[in-house]
């Protein structure tokens, strides 16, 4: 969801990870050295506690290398372009908005992960084929800067409809739907809300109301959004941003000084449910190590480590979620959703139309 997440602060806990590409041999065979290394390719929001990763490395005998490849949309596109000679063994961070693109391009090889039976069926969107394994879920939602709205004596928006009202003109920043996972999720949420015939008119109204579009989440949240810890820059003048329902707890947990309450809130009527997956890359140099890594990602230790690192919810049944995470960022009660088959059928056309409508 990743990505979905407060990458700028969460990344600080990723101690000891080395950002390197895989050292694949030219003939596709593993050397003795390569078989002891497994490479994870991910979006920028990947994060894990040092001790949890070290425990996996000790028990499995594999050393993990991590290659972060930008926003989820960019990372998926790059993985597809390099699939014949992949940068790593496992890809983490493809979500339900981009899943069909990855599967249609043959990005992954089948692998049924150990422990998959304890993952809810609602998250298993490739059930029966096992080309990807669900890892986490979260909600893409508009966040708001509480101080801005209090200072201006203006009620924050709560719905998609509110965002096109004159009171919120020039206040919203979102991500490019063609390059960013949260940007695409927000587009799909509007399509789910207003239907095939209504979403374009909605975006015409958003454009007329001054919505700003930037390339990815990092820029939108940390550079443009006035309510983020990084949004204290002079140009950070947008008090509304497309982010995640789990962004407010990150602002509390990593605040310096730590605030008593979250400085940001969530417009709960603007949420779209995101599910993230990991998959064994089709031409992985170390498929054995890749399978072990995927097993680790849905294991209890990693699943319970995720909330305070990547600010997403575990998919493993019974995995504990820290109280401070749920206190400041509970999952949306009624997020918009969309059948993966419909996303597959319409996504590219919608993104093309959105680009012409909003960016030109």
Distinct helical segment count: 15
Helix content, binned percent: 25-40%
Can you write the helix and strand succession as a string?
A: HEHEHEHEEHHEHHEHEHEHHHEHH
Classification by helices and strands: alpha/beta
- How many distinct beta strands? 10
**Uncertain regions spanning at least 5 consecutive residues:** 1-29
Entry summary:
With 360 residues, the protein is α/β, with parallel strands linked by helices. The chain is 35% helix and 18% strand.
Describe the structure.
- The protein is of the alpha/beta class and 360 residues long.
- 51% of the residues are buried.
- It is built from 15 helices and ten strands.
- The two termini are 28 Å apart.
- Strands 1, 2, 3, 4, 5, 6, 7, 8, 9 and 10 form a ten-stranded mixed β-sheet that branches.
Structural key phrases:
360 residues; globular; 18% strand; ten-stranded mixed beta sheet; 10 strands; alpha/beta
Question: What is the element layout, followed by pairings?
Answer:
Elements: H1 7-10, E1 37-42, H2 50-60, E2 63-68, H3 72-81, E3 90-95, H4 99-104, E4 108-109, E5 133-145, H5 146-151, H6 160-163, E6 172-175, H7 181-194, H8 199-208, E7 212-214, H9 217-224, E8 240-244, H10 247-253, E9 264-281, H11 287-297, H12 300-305, H13 307-310, E10 313-314, H14 323-328, H15 340-359
Helix pairs in contact: 7-8, 8-15
